[in-house]
Design goal:
This protein has 3 domains: 37-197, 3-Layer(aba) Sandwich (Rossmann fold), CATH 3.40.50.980; 249-431, 3-Layer(aba) Sandwich (Rossmann fold), CATH 3.40.50.12780; 441-531, GMP Synthetase, Chain A, domain 3 (2-Layer Sandwich), CATH 3.30.300.30. The strands form 8 sheets. Strands 8-7-6-4-5-10-11-21 form an 8-stranded mixed sheet, with helices on both faces. A 5-stranded mixed sheet has the order 14-15-16-17-18, covered by helices on one side. Strands 19, 20, 22, 23 and 24 form a 5-stranded antiparallel sheet that branches. The protein starts with 8 loop residues before the first strand and ends with a helix. The chain is built from 18 helices and 31 strands. The chain is an alpha/beta fold. 31% of the residues lie in helices and 26% in strands.
Length: 534
């Protein structure tokens, strides 16, 4: 288990793109709808924005990108790395309070925005009293006249001023201990928590992932994630380090991914598992539907066996991976490769294994009493190694609780909070979140196991089970939500005792046309609870 020396020089995230831009300047680097930018054109955009960050912005280490699925979003991300700064993303569709809290915690006062995000800036500025520099590469002076008059304390830099700058494209030196990016995830207190990732963490991830499944220069890679999801950086960096083409999926087409894959001739797909479940529910995972796909990766949620098998049949020439990795361990850390005819027998509870972590990482299971689980068994997964980040941004207490030292073990260990099972072959299987364990009628149960039974009986992979009502912190019952409005809820509930102990059978089954998804396109359990009046 090798943890990089913090002083060790490691590749900048911009290095691979810079090399590809020299080697393949006219090859398409980015496609958004009908617009296309070559490596030379995207390089120039990023280089001018980098110059703008250095000329107009402050010297603070973090620069925010407040944009979505646009040229400014992608060129701005590159520009931050070319400037040797650390990246933090804001989402224009998120509440202003959340974006302001992130900006405040990050201490960023330079923000790259696109035209679409301009409308969301007033609310953000009102909640952020500090001085800001706003770089708006696709917004002209005329459009900025109103904002300039309304907020004279903000430094507004528009398209004309940025276009006049000479691109700066020299690659900065980065060290393993330097901050590469912050990703803010939902905190239990309601305040977003910042996960810090260093250049050393990111460099190891890039090296390990590219050994597993690097894009080829001819690949057309789908970009499915918002910038506030760390895997968006995976899509960008791995595509551009290979000299391939990044094809941005419009938000509206995420609900019908099959059409985009076919129409845009996508060869490399990486999305949350619910995207594949949606395609399956829509009946678009037909055998041979995606003949051009070469690599497929699904992450973020338990991957049902039926969905994996349907995707493999739809993309018969594609390698299919189930991917697992907490944000705190740098994007993705464990991979399982689906093998038609063999993987079905390796699955448990109707869900595909998460496999094993990358080489160079140690991994342990601990039972509820803090004892190490040897051999087969289940417990909380702990991880240690070069992709484990330094902790939570400006939160030493939370960091100390979650990033721990173990007696007799080297290094820092990240407590994932995930209940994981290890089989006789050593493969890991995701069971559920420890915070999704509930005690109901004296019976401790895993919501993931209830969901597996409902999926099996309903024939729908879009299933979520939530505790309701909860009184004094204790669950009094369960409610199952199933995507499939034509199903018979009462028949489902009558059939579940054949698969589950009576104590685990949901009190209600609610049928919906579709399950709500959050900003990262995962099933939104909070929205389901809202439907119950919680």
């Amino acid at each position: 288990m090798l943890v990089p020396d913090p002083a060790l020089v490691c590749p900048s995230p911009a290095a691979g793109f810079a090399a590809a831009a020299v080697a393949r300047p006219q090859h398409p680097a980015l496609e958004i709808g009908s617009q296309r930018w070559s490596y030379a054109e995207l390089s120039a955009e990023a280089g001018r924005l980098r110059a703008a960050i250095e000329r107009f912005g402050s010297e603070r280490p973090l620069v925010a990108v407040f944009a979505s699925r646009s040229l400014a979003a992608h060129a701005g991300t590159l520009a931050v790395f070319f400037a040797g700064r650390a990246h933090v993303a804001l989402n224009p569709s998120h509440p202003a309070e959340r974006n302001a809290a992130i900006l405040d915690q990050a201490g960023a006062d330079t923000v790259v925005v696109d035209r679409a995000a301009l409308a969301a800036l007033p609310a953000l500025i009102a909640l952020h009293p500090g001085a800001l520099t706003v770089l708006a590469p696709d917004v002209g002076a005329a459009e900025l006249a109103g904002p300039r008059a309304a907020w004279p304390e903000v430094r507004w830099v528009g398209a004309e001023a940025i276009a006049a700058l000479t691109p700066r494209l020299d690659v900065p030196e980065t060290r393993a201990g330097d901050l590469a990016y912050l990703v803010f995830t939902s905190g239990s207190t309601g305040t977003p928590k910042g996960v810090a990732i260093t250049h050393g963490n990111l460099a190891h991830y890039m090296r390990s992932f590219r050994e597993l499944a690097a894009p080829l220069p001819r690949d057309r890679v789908a970009a499915t994630y918002e910038l506030t999801f760390d895997v968006a950086l995976h899509d960008m960096l791995n595509t551009w380090w290979s000299g391939a083409t990044l094809c941005v999926v419009p938000a509206r087409q995420l609900l019908a991914p099959a059409r985009f894959i076919v129409n845009e001739r996508v060869t490399y797909w990486f999305s949350v598992a619910s995207s594949a479940m949606l395609a399956e529910q829509q009946g678009t995972l037909l055998p041979g539907a995606f003949p051009l796909l070469r690599v497929s990766m699904l992450c973020g949620e338990p991957l049902p066996v039926g969905t994996a098998a349907a995707w493999a049949a739809a993309a018969p020439a594609s390698e299919l991976y189930n991917v697992y990795g907490p944000t705190e361990t740098t994007m993705e850390l464990a991979f399982y490769r689906w093998r038609v005819g063999a993987s079905e027998a390796e699955c448990r509870r109707g869900v595909v294994p998460i496999g094993l972590p990358f080489a160079g990482h140690a991994h342990l299971l601990f039972d509820p009493d803090g004892g190490e689980v040897e051999g087969e068994g289940r417990g909380e997964l702990l991880l240690s190694g070069p992709q484990v980040g330094p902790g939570y941004w400006l939160d030493t207490e939370r960091t100390a609780r979650t990033f721990v030292e173990l007696p007799g073990r080297k290094g820092t260990w990240y407590r994932t909070g995930d209940l994981v099972e290890r089989d006789a072959a050593g493969l890991y299987h995701f069971v559920g979140r420890l915070d999704h364990q509930v005690k109901l009628r004296g019976y401790r149960l895993e919501l993931g196991e209830v969901e597996a039974a409902v999926r099996r009986l309903a024939g729908s992979n879009l299933v979520a089970v939530v505790p309701h009502p909860v009184v004094g912190g204790n669950a009094q019952g369960l409610v199952a939500f199933v995507a499939g409005s034509r199903l018979d809820a009462q028949a489902l509930r009558r059939g579940l005792p054949e698969l589950l102990p009576l104590a685990m059978v949901p009190d209600r089954i609610v049928l919906l046309d579709a399950l709500p998804l959050n900003g990262n396109r995962k099933i939104d359990r909070g929205a389901l609870l809202d439907q119950l009046g919680v």
